[in-house]
Amino acid sequence: SNAPIRVAVTGAAGAIGYSLLFRIGTGELFGPNQPVILHLIDIEPALPALQGVTMELDDCAYPLLKGIVATANLDEGFKGVNWALLVGSVSRKAGMERKDLLGINGKIFTGQGQAIQKNAASGVRILVVGNPCNTNCLIAMNNAPEVPRERWYAMTRLDENRARLQLSRKAGVDITAVSNVAVWGNHSATQYPDFYNARINSKPVTDVIQDETWLKNEFIPTVQQRGTAVIKARGAGSAASAANAIIDSVHSIVRPTPAGDWHSLCVCSDGSYGIEKGIICGFPVRSNGSKTEIVQGLSINEFSKRGLMPRSMS
Ligand code: NAX
């Protein structure tokens, strides 16, 4: 029988955790034949709630879930983990400056990076979701210099999925007809969902949707503001769709990318497309099932060039 994969999830008592953990339990992350052990990490005050989540996971009697570690201790939480999904963070509240947030999360992700390096399994891979996810990922990565840089990711997949939806609706095609959507830069309101290189039924989007005014002035802001629109409508942030995007992101890393396509992920820049080496930035990424690479050679026009560079930290 397979050895279980150990998956750490931080912020496990939160809203995204409440969608994500139960899908991991059913085997959606690594398939129906792969046992998992969940390492649920949250802060001390959230431990009672985390206990409740643990009880519910237990009560699902998932055949693939071979164990649960629930803790506020980072050494225990990251011990032997093969994957670390860093979901928990402190998001900006009214009256909080960006630099306050950076100070708080700087401390959190410094400690988590160090604990991952010290405790995780040697092949550990890390996906940062908690915002500002690019910056948080960079901080954790820089505090875990022995964990190779190609194992660090931050999430732009929800933005990719949102972009695919908007393009499919506008073109009147099935969601599966939209491919090759790259979200460049930060996961934030300054992200650049690149429609020039995206395809609908294998044709350039601009051949199918012959309305660049809509693409530039409606599509881009709709994708950039989608998270805010969900908060307005629901009174709470995107949680189930974020959990879904986490699962999609991991699949895109551990499964070979279909020929000719790519997915959006933030990875450590190697200087591709003139983006500063060493920062964590959204790129089009392909995987062969074990290694990911930044897709090279896409044409970047003047409009795209302006969208490409990360400009803000959330
Ligand atoms: P919640 O506020 O529901 O849950 C956050 C959880 O994190 C809480 O249980 C809290 O106790 C825990 N936490 C706080 N500090 C922690 C620490 N130092 N160590 C471990 N746990 C800690 O937020 P939720 O809706 O689950 O969202 C979590 C994060 O995802 C937020 O930062 C949010 O901004 C971010 N998102 C990122 C997205 C992306 O596409 N990259 C999209 C969805 C979401 O907005």
From TrEMBL:
SUPFAM superfamilies: LDH C-terminal domain-like (SSF56327), NAD(P)-binding Rossmann-fold domains (SSF51735). Residues 6-146 form the Lactate/malate dehydrogenase N-terminal domain. InterPro entries: L-lactate/malate_DH, Lactate/malate_DH_C, Lactate/malate_DH_N, Lactate_DH/Glyco_Ohase_4_C, Malate_DH_AS, Malate_DH_type2, NAD(P)-bd_dom_sf. Coiled coil: none annotated. It comes from the Bacteria. It catalyses: (S)-malate + NAD(+) = oxaloacetate + NADH + H(+). Signal peptide: none annotated. Keywords: NAD, Oxidoreductase, Tricarboxylic acid cycle. Catalyzes the reversible oxidation of malate to oxaloacetate. This is Malate dehydrogenase. The gene is mdh.
